[in-house]
Amino acid sequence: MNATVKKRKIISLIALSLSTGAALFGLFWLVFILFDVIRNGIAGLSLDLFLKDPAPPGVEGGGLRNAFVGQLEIVFFATIMGVPLGVLAGTFIAEYARGTKFARVVSILSDIMVSVPSIVVGTFIYSILVKPIGSINLGGFLGVLFLSVIIAIIFGGILNFVVNRILNNISIKKPATVKLINLSVVLMTVLFGLTTFIVLFPKFVDKIYGFNGWAGASALAFIMIPVVLRTTEDMLTLVPWTLREAAFALGASYYRVIKDIVYRSAITGIITGVILSISRVAGETAPLLFTSFNNQFFTTNMNEPIASLTVMIFTYAMGPYEDWHRQAWASALVITLFILLITVIARSIIHYKFGKHKSQ
Which domains, from first to last, does the chain contain? Predict the structure, then answer.
């Protein structure tokens, strides 16, 4: 008996030592990379970096104002496009298609898409949104269509929220009446989307042509969607089914159960997935080289080539000038701090809004 216990302790010590060594090895390189970025990045930080546009090649000074603004624009619109679609798709797979073959196929495809190289995504978006197919501006058509869908989803969500508030106040109990009202909301959302497409198509279809910021945002959103989808699916699956049954027993609809019970229980994991997706795309360069390209001048027009911080870091890091190298290191530090800031803010919101509820 003592020999068996001694053998188990030795095996446990070996496993603990290997695990600790692996953790320390990974932590060492993480600290080394962060230290290198901070050490080189601080030397290049200045107000000119944020307030001035790039200087001509060979001329010292200037800044990367155009790249900072362009990066924020592209990531912002990518988040608006990718996060709602990812959360909705993950909700559908985890709730409405739970246990079906379709859900398993989508989950497997999402796992594959998470590991697809970003340059492949960039070339795919380039082929459908940037490169014209003959005389057909497919990019402009798809861009307006996608924008109309996003606007319609936002409109439908707001309308559904307002209608449910009204229904709760007047207490309609007939299921047929509730279904008719929900169907009316869906039809109004579809009609609003079609109207939006008809209005926006003649105004924007010819402006979205060639390299443009919308293509860059679409490429990043394409990368974000599977990350958010899988995280949302996993987090909703972890919520015990008994919570849903308890809400059903009180007469709550499935929509209310998902919105008020399931989402609230899984909000921490969902927001973590959103942060991970933003962190993933914030440092991407290859997709933007094929889509939004670059622009040495300041612009906020997403219909034309627009500068991005990651592409400028790549360009400056490969350049022959020492001043470019300093600005590239400083930009890398800014991206790192930006991701850290997003994480801290999101965690603070979660703790403030849901921490007290969980502790009670």
Answer: 45-131+210-359 (1.10.3720.10), 138-208 (no CATH)
